[in-house]
Amino acid sequence: MRDVLRINGLRKTFRLHSQGVEITALDGVRLAVAEGECVALVGPSGAGKSTLLRCVYGNYVADAGEVLVRQGDTFADVATNDPRQVLGLRRRVIGYVSQFLRVVPRVSTLDVVAEPALRAGVAREPALDRARRLLEQLAIPQRLWGLPPQTFSGGEQQRVNIARAFAYDYDLILLDEPTASLDADNRRRAAGLVRDALSRGAAVLGVFHDLDTAGDLDARCFAMEAPVRSAA
Known about the structure:
This protein is of the alpha/beta class. Helix content is 34%, strand content 29%.
């Protein structure tokens, strides 16, 4: 199967000027994720797992290396941080579940979930229909769909966050501890969405709160080490 993501020699550092310390969060990372494959990033807290996801999504600018994401028959390099290119990839290629839901205030949950599909060019009614199905699958009561998700519990907000990432058929899905605030039943529901995406050929790269979920998804583990600190 074809690679959807190729990371070559990725390096990312952070400089803490107030402490005179430089942290090497990622140093020469090499990783590929193919169609229909789930890769779980594993390692201690602070090993750079979330940083790697943010570099792939374009939230962080890499210091060196390549982050190649398949776009049709070619690859786009997110590491170059061309804003137009990154926004295009987010619109049609890369879905992302962050650790916290960040959306425009006072927008209904149904519209929040449908927004990624609308942004990708899906007509409004099909986008809303898919959003309704996702909210049902993730056990968000219909009486809440018209309310803004900021009024929900942490677990409900995270399920809305997950639904957004599956509102469109992205080729690459990034998951940053998607099930950390979910109970066992809702973890199974979320894992079901991931399995469906894998079955249609999506590539998944994730950080999982519990390795049982990664095991249920037959994920390949990619080990990461703690960062190196040095004097700035």
